[in-house]
């Protein structure tokens, strides 16, 4: 109810005025309560709306996740994406509505209550106070006696002043009441109108949004109708197929045939036959396990789960036989026998057993035919001058192409047949000897132990590039010239294709373990015949050798050990890449790319610079092996003896990159970790580093060289490779477990040397290996193979060092050009 207070009544202070004031005051109190309640309800509505928006957003994110999951179904993904985008817009519109509501209702009404109603309350307090003072003045004035003139005047003056103040404050109070009554109508209607306009905008935006989406929704509805028709048709087809399969299964049950018996030798996927078989384990308990077997690619394999890599039971079916097995209690058993082992299998029925036996026999016959055809084709393509120098150059060109390990290794002279028995198309290799072997001879080599022969498959195992190059540098012809040099003299007959396994085993043991056929006396020594003499540097030469020469000359460092070979069984330390050090790795790639861009484009200059560098390094390395006693004194180690010891022969051949001479030295009994006490206690592996050959280092490591033996100056192979800037060798030694924390007599480890030389490639390799090692130790991941990034980077460096070494020679080339 609207209440208006008259100003005239205010001056009279009549009962009507007091009644009007009481009514107004009660109305304002009730108005304040209503407004406070409305503000609180608005706040609750906004909070609830925001919670609704949060839940709606989570629901929308669930739709987006479902859309991403349905990425293979374009219709579902597109539709859900459009719907989630529309819902996101609606959430945004809701948030705008709630913000507008907060401004229009909560903010405006709270302001009205806090400002206007508070002013009314303050005016009311002042009015009540002055009213009380006026009443007191009237009472005092009435009580004064007429004979007391002084008191009469004082009371009269107080009453006059109090009335004047009352009229002033009362008029202000009435003004405040009338203003409040007029303003509250505008404030309430203004805030509500703003709130309603916010709703109008919200629904208009939603309508426009869904109006744009409506055509797509209609199209989708039509597609859904068609999908329903297609689904009904597919359901009928599946029901018909189900009925057909059920009838076929009933016929199979009636004929007691468990599985469709068929095999296809010419299957497109290479699988001749597959199915479940029971396999007897080779453990002491002879347990039987059911596995999924298949005959494919001339091999018998099985797997436990579909995602498991198949386990090869028989590598080459041509060397196997299959037979029934009736001497055990289980039924339907048959045995697949290879030269190295046998596998006992059990089918579910007699028909299945017969089918598997026939499939294996047919695969064996087919494999023989295919291999025969391939051999004829290879013979027709091969040149009669295979052993000539020209064919050797053609072979090396082939090695740079992308053939498989089998093709690359078999094209080396003599490698097309087994090194020990002559069987064609060998699929195995001894990586430390550099020869190819048939499957039976490879089994015999395994029995010798890894200190004599390390066997690896040319088709199943992965081959590192440096190991492939090692195989291609040696070969069956080279090794047989060493290990069968006295074969005719001693009158021993080499095993042939039809020889018994016992005969082959005795021959191989005599050849590689006892070395009965190795020529005991050296016919010639290549280094001595060439007239190469190693002279010490004079003091004057050392003064003028420059920083590079002094660095190389000061590179001879070793541990104070006795001059005997030291074998090492240290396991390779693998590690995981530390994610916290990625910035260092990325900075390396930036640095290396800048250095790569600075490389000279003139290939002739690069070649001459590289040759100069190589000659300089070899000369300095050779001359710096000795501590000079005089300016013209020659080394007694190289010049006194015409027939060096096997260890010295290995030492020299390692520097000269002569793998056949190194193999010959090992055959004569050279210790692979032989220490040259005359030359700073350097080892053949350190000499191989100085020689600059990655393959030579790999050959020594495969034959048991200790990668951590150091010279007198405390420098091991990793130190020397870092000083010389041989990135490929650094990569190889880190992969083989070199200790990069070892310091030389100057307290420098390989990383500090590489940093001083500003060699980005080597710094990166060392830092990466160190970060991986720290990560592995912190997480206790001992023996783990390392993460994919770590393996990929080292694999890339290995490939580059073996196939494109010129990309890693930028530091050597730039130094040579400067000199």
Question: Which key features would you list for this structure?
Answer:
819 residues; alpha+beta; Substrate Binding Domain Of Dnak, Chain:A, Domain 2; PH-domain like; Annexin V, domain 1; three-stranded antiparallel sheet; 10 strands; disordered C terminus
Short characterization:
The protein has helices at 7-12, 15-69, 74-143, 149-254, 350-381, 389-399, 405-410, 439-448, 465-473, 476-483, 487-490, 501-513, 526-529, 539-543, 546-553, 582-597, 603-623, 636-639, 646-655, 659-667, 684-691, 694-702, 717-724, 727-735, 750-757, 760-779, 788-803, 810-818; strands at residues 271-280, 288-296, 299-303, 311-314, 321-324, 333-337, 342-346, 428-430, 435-437, 455-457. The chain has 819 residues and is α+β, with helices and mostly antiparallel strands. The N and C termini lie far apart (107 Å).
For this structure, the CATH topology of the largest domain is Serine Threonine Protein Phosphatase 5, Tetratricopeptide repeat
CATH-wise, what's the superfamily of the largest domain?
Ankyrin repeat-containing domain
The shape, in one word, is elongated
CA-CA gap between termini: 107 Å
Low-confidence residue ranges: 254-260, 382-402, 523-641, 781-785, 810-819
Number of helices: 28
Radius of gyration: 49 Å
Strand order of the largest sheet: 4-3-2-1-7-6-5
- What amount of the residues lies in strands? 5-15%
Biggest β-sheet: count, sense, barrel?
7 strands, antiparallel
- Strands, total number: 10
Count of spatially separate domains? 4
Give the mean pLDDT. Answer: 75
Alpha-beta content class: alpha+beta
CATH architecture of the largest domain: Alpha Horseshoe
CATH class of the largest domain: Mainly Alpha
Helix content: 55-70%
Pfam families: Ank_2, ArfGap, BAR_3, PH
Function: GTPase-activating protein for the ADP ribosylation factor family.
Membrane topology: Peripheral membrane protein
Protein name: Arf-GAP with coiled-coil, ANK repeat and PH domain-containing protein
